[in-house]
């Protein structure tokens, strides 16, 4: 059982604040993804949980035990590093066994665990090799096997797939998900890749500027972004935003069209590109670029002078310069407060 | 032409080394097996037959066996500490490197001024009332004091060169390996023993080979502190060449030093060999 609690953790490097008072609870056996652009503080937060960095203020609890003053080895964690950190001077077997040797585990148990995790990661034929003789993908597997062999309460992963080529990344992603679900450990996974985050996570914590902007399950994060940043960061292409002018209580005018919205002083209209239906009425859009992508067609248009994207059925192939009308699905429209940038 | 250019540029240095190093070397090798115009091993038998030879040989070996491990341990400790410093690292490196700028004879003389009869150590002992009058420390009665003085002077003088090499080597080990060791449960000592040391092998090779060869060639420090009380291979070479005017026997000594140096270099290369594929 390992619930992770992060209580008001902040970190400053000189005058730079990497983390502003972060609070986060990760449930036992949960797969939590920390998602954000580079420099958002996600890796710093992971390293604080690992014990490789000390928080300036705040507390870290793992499994009901306060650990922020403990060295990494006393925290019951294992980690997969971005560059794998597979020891070059040890064979694959000894790399996987490294943590077990440090615990002075007896040889029979070491062999059992190394064999089992190597089989799990399909590297049993590589056990006698050195890391210099392995491909990037194989090193990645060794790094994961080394973490799993510890049978830790918590596995921390720092962009583990970012150094693999696209095809291998896809394959490893699915495999990781399966292996980690079976291992029943609590996992914290750092990535800047939203697709990776969506596909792996039980819950995603979207980070920006040293703060957690939203922590929720992937569908919730996608459908109901808590902040404008989340909508603009997640989704490919991201959400469309349009200025709205008030037209009575709960009524807003967007690009000449009337919409029901929240009762507020100011609001910004937002809609995802796939939630638009072409028709005779709706937001008037002048087509700029047409990109047929196979299953659908991506349209870049201009609505009220703003760039605007729509994903349409691939049977529809407008030409640049055409005027279309996009009717937004009413239940998919979101509103943000322009001042606080949060959802209304 | 551009393909030949690098060789052309290296030619002067290569020619210089061949002329002033390789040629004299062959000359010495030749001298060692030549006596009165005849090829013979008599130089070697005269050398080995002399009563001082085995003393000089074993003194050199013993000095190396004591000095180099002390230097290695100190250099590793210092390098580990310096590597971890956040600030003031280069200042400390400069301070540690000061003895490197002093010739070995000067180093010997500095330590002589400590140990001689009117030296600092005696003044201190008299001043503290430990002894009534200055005592002869570096005399033939207590060669072990001469030995200790030489060890001190050598450690003082030449530890920094090892440390500088090891600091550079430690800087080449990516930080992630140390972090991985931390996360996977290594204590400080385990991290040093199981990760830093094995990954430092290439630098250890360089540092050890350099120091061991120089230790076999120890000369000026020994002469300054011990005169002829503590014969070593180099001082005997000098003695045969200049006092005895026996060029052939001196050459034989030089060949012995060379043989020992080559043997230990090969040994160190073997012991600290990094298998292919296991390199960073």
Describe the structure.
The complex is a heterodimer of chains A (344) and B (280). Chain A has eight helices and 21 strands. Chain A is an alpha+beta fold and 344 residues long. In chain A, the strands form five sheets. Chain A has a six-stranded mixed sheet, sandwiched between helices. In chain A, strands 16-20-17-18-19 form a five-stranded antiparallel sheet, with no helix packed on it. A four-stranded antiparallel sheet of chain A has the order 2-1-4-5, covered by helices on one side. Chain A is elongated, with a radius of gyration of 24 Å. Chain B has one domain: MetI-like fold. Helices cover 74% and strands 1% of the residues of chain B. Chain B has 13 helices and two strands. Chain B has helices at 5-32, 42-49, 51-84, 89-97, 104-115, 120-127, 143-171, 175-183, 188-199, 201-216, 220-226, 233-243, 247-271, and strands at 34-35, 38-39. A two-stranded antiparallel sheet of chain B has the order 1-2. In chain B, strand 1 (34-35) and strand 2 (38-39) form a beta hairpin. In chain B, helix 1 (5-32) crosses helix 13 (247-271). The two termini of chain B are 36 Å apart. In chain B, 31% of the residues are buried. Chain A binds chain B through residues 50-52, 71-73, 77-79, 81, 83, 85, 87-90, 98-99, 101-103, 129-133, 146, 150, and chain B through 174, 176-177, 179-187, 190, 194-195, 198-199, 201, 274-280.
């Amino acid at each position: 059982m390992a619930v992770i609690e992060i209580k008001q953790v902040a970190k400053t490097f000189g005058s730079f604040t990497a983390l502003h008072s972060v609070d986060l609870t990760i449930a036992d056996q949960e797969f939590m993804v920390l998602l954000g652009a580079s420099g958002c503080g996600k890796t710093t937060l992971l390293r604080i949980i690992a014990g490789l960095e000390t928080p300036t203020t705040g507390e870290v609890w793992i499994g009901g035990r306060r650990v922020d003053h403990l060295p990494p080895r006393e925290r019951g964690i294992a980690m997969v590093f971005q560059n794998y950190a597979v020891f070059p001077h040890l064979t694959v077997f000894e790399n996987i066994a490294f943590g077990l040797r440090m615990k002075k585990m007896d040889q029979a148990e070491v062999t059992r665990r190394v064999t089992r995790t190597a089989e799990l990661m399909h590297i049993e034929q590589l056990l006698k090799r050195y890391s210099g003789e392995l491909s990037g993908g194989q090193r990645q597997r060794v790094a994961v096997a080394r973490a799993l062999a510890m049978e830790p309460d918590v596995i921390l992963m720092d962009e583990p797939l970012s150094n693999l080529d696209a095809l291998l990344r896809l394959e490893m992603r699915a495999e990781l998900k399966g292996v980690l679900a079976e291992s029943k450990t609590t996992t914290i996974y750092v990535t800047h890749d939203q697709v990776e985050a969506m596909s792996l996570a039980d819950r995603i914590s979207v980070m920006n500027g040293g703060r957690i902007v939203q922590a929720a399950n992937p569908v919730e994060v996608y459908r109901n972004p808590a902040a404008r940043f989340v909508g603009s960061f997640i989704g490919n292409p991201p959400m469309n935003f349009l200025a709205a002018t008030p037209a009575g209580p709960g009524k807003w005018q967007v690009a000449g069209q009337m919409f029901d919205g929240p009762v507020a002083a100011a609001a910004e209209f937002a809609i995802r590109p796939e939630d638009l239906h072409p028709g005779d009425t709706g937001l008037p859009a002048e087509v700029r670029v047409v990109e047929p992508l196979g299953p659908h067609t991506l349209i870049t248009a201009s609505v009220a002078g703003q760039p605007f994207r729509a994903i349409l059925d691939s049977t529809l192939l407008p030409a640049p310069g055409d005027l279309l009308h996009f009717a937004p699905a009413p239940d998919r429209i979101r509103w943000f407060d322009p001042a606080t940038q949060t959802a209304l | 032409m551009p393909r030949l250019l690098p060789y052309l540029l290296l030619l002067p240095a290569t020619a210089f080394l061949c002329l002033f190093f390789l040629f004299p070397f062959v000359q010495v090798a030749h001298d060692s097996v030549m006596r009165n115009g005849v090829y013979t091993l008599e130089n070697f038998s005269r050398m080995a037959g002399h009563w001082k030879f085995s003393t000089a040989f074993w003194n050199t070996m013993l000095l190396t066996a004591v000095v180099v491990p002390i230097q290695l341990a100190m250099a590793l400790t210092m390098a580990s500490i310096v590597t971890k410093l956040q600030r003031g690292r280069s200042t400390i490196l400069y301070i540690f490197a000061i003895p490197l700028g002093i010739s070995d004879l000067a180093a010997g003389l500095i330590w002589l001024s400590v140990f001689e009869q009117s030296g600092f150590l005696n003044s201190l002992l008299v001043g503290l009332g430990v002894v009534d009058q200055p005592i002869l420390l570096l005399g033939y009665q207590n060669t072990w004091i001469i030995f200790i003085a030489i060890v001190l002077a050598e450690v003082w003088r030449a530890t920094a060169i090892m440390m500088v090499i090891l600091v550079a080597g430690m800087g080449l080990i990516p930080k992630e390996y140390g972090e991985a060791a931390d996360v996977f449960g290594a204590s400080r000592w385990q991290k040093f023993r199981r990760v830093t040391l094995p990954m430092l092998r290439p630098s250890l090779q360089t540092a050890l080979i350099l120091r061991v060869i120089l230790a076999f060639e120890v000369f000026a420090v020994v002469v300054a502190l011990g005169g002829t009380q503590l014969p070593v291979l180099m001082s005997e070479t000098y003695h045969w060449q200049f006092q005895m005017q026996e060029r052939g026997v001196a050459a034989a000594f030089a060949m012995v030093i060379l043989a020992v140096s080559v043997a230990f270099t090969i040994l160190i290369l073997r012991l600290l060999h990094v298998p292919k594929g296991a390199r960073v």
